[in-house]
Amino acid sequence: MCTDNEAGLPARLPWVPFAAMMHPHTEMRLINEEMGFGVFATRPIPAGTVVYVKDALDIEFAPGDPMIHHPAYAHTVEKYTYIEPDGMRVLSWDHAKYVNHCCEPSTLTTGYGFEIALRDLKPGEELTDDYAIFNSAMPMACMCGAPGCRGMVRSEDFDGMVESWDLRIRSAIASYGEVPQLLESLIPLGTMRRLRKYLRTGEGFRSVATQKLPARRRAIAMISANGNGHHKLTA
Questions:
Q1: Which of 130-167 are b and which e, b meaning 16 or more Cβ less than 10 Å from the residue's Cβ?
Q2: What are phi and psi of 186, to 5 degrees?
Q3: Model confidence over 55-107: pLDDT tens digits?
C-alpha cells in the first residue's frame, strides 16, 4: 500500500460502503472441480470500471519471509499470491485471489496498480486477467480455451504483450470518469493525481511495463518457487 507518511498510514483512507476490495458487484463461484473457483459479475460492470484495488488488509510477504517456505503455508502462498515490482508477494484477503487467467482477459492490471474492466461485463460473466502480468516464477499450463490461447503462461510473455495490454488499457481507461467508481476511495492520492493528469492532458500514461519484476528479483522469485516445489503462481 502506498503511504504518505513515516507512520505507514495509507495514502488514502479506505472507506467504502462494503467489506471487499474486489468490486462489490462480483462474487466467487465454483466453476468445476478441475478449474476450481472464479469471480463473476453479479450486476452490469461497464468498461473502464476499477474492479480491484490493493488495500491495507491484503497480506504482504517479503522475498525472505519464512512463511513462504513454512510447510503449513507454502502451498497457499505460492498458489494465491502475485508478485509486485518490488518483489513483495501479495495475498488478497477477499475473493480477488480467485480471479482466473485468460489469454483474452475481461479485465487487466494496469500500470496504476489497480485492475480495470476492458469491456462491458454482463451479470454472470467471469472476470479474468492475464497472469503473465503477475511476475509468475514458473510456467503454467493454460486451460482458458480462448481463441487466442497461448497454451502456456510464461514470464517471457510479458515483453511481447505489453504493447497490446497498454492499448486495451488506454481504450478502457478513457471511460474512467464516465462510469461509477465504487473503489476510488481506496486508490492512493498520488496515483489519482497521475491518473487525472493523464485523463486531462493525454500525457504521462503509466504503462503496465512498470509492473514487471526486475531480472534480479525475478531470479529470487524463481529460486523461491523451486524451493517450494510448486509450479503455479496465481493471483
A1: bbbbbbbbbebebebeeeeebeebbbebbeebbeebbe
A2: -95, -10
A3: 888 888 888 888 888 888 887 777 777 888 888 888 888 898 999 999 999 99
